[in-house]
Amino acid sequence: MSRKRQGSHSSKPKRMSVAAMILLDVLAIGIGLVVFALFHHVLPTYFGFGVKKSEPVVLATLPPQPAVSLEPTAAPAQSEGTETEEAEPTPEPTPTRVYSGVWGEKFADKFTEGEVIQTENSYRSENVSVTVERVVEDRLVYYVADVYVSDLKYLGTAFAHGEGNGDFRSGLAEIDAMAKRVNAIVAICGDHYHGRQEGLIVRNGVLYQETPFQDVCVLYTDGRMETMTRDELDIEAVKAAGVWQAWSFGPGLLDAEGHAKTFGDHQANVMGINPQNPRSAIGYYEPGHYCLVEIEGNRAGCFIGSYGLTLSEMGTLFEQMGCKCAYNLDGGRSAAIAWMGERINVNYGRTLSDIIYVTDTPVESEG
Fold this sequence. Notes:
Blueprint: H1 18-47, E1 57-58, E2 117-118, E3 122-124, E4 128-137, E5 140-149, E6 155-159, H2 175-181, E7 184-189, E8 199-203, E9 206-211, E10 216-220, E11 225-228, H3 235-241, E12 243-248, E13 279-286, E14 289-295, H4 311-321, E15 325-328, E16 337-339, E17 342-343, E18 354-359
Antiparallel strand pairs: 1-9, 2-3, 3-4, 4-5, 5-14, 6-18, 7-16, 7-18, 8-9, 10-11, 10-12, 13-14, 13-15, 16-17
């Protein structure tokens, strides 16, 4: 008698469906991207893992100003035995004005001869002249700080907690606290270097990082300011030229002739921030003359009738103001401006990593 084969009717393993395989592949890729982002962006930024703890390098210092002698000139001596007629009394000479800094004489009408003159929206001394204006237009509100400095040591930048070391990424703070700490007359938010690993970072002549990013803005020790794209940036040439500040956010808003650039969402240096937003930016007229601008917008439920500006509209504003160069800084909920240590714009509920400010107290290096 023949025996039946055992197991001849046992079921074979079922194959996974194509849809399930695709779903698992997508899930695996997603998990991989999340892990990559976690270890490449989030942890290094907020906990310092993998961040190079290099020491800051001093690239440039501002030249000291020559001392001016105020001693009166001695009168010529009379020869003995020489009879002289009684001379008319010599009138007291008019005191010679002593100018502060590199551009004190150039902008003499903007500065005082030593006294401080302060109003609700202006501040003048022998070193600085700042006027802040709140502009209200149709569906737009913004602040413009017109700034003259006699020397770059009165135009500075500061980190949230003043760290000038390898851990300079640590910490965020309100603009009010930072402005008070550095005796700022006026201050706006900076480039939010805290949120990325890339970018050329030079603050008050000290180099903290030199990784290329997108558009960069450089303020040189001679007072010139220019913006460059990633392709145009030659870091070694910038360092050799004497750089006082370098910011990495952008984009640059004006071309070489001072005309507004146009932007599209597809551009790498726009990063999806082109729609109307609250914004902060810095503008340049000539060495010693700058402006700080904050645009109000509709963010975090804080709507005051201002819709903000697109990047192209921002460029047009700076062109109309007559700037030769302008640069977009961090904006959105980070947009902020403080006057005399107090925020004057809408608080969108975000703390900052750094500020740009004007002071009557000479800036000391963060390094």
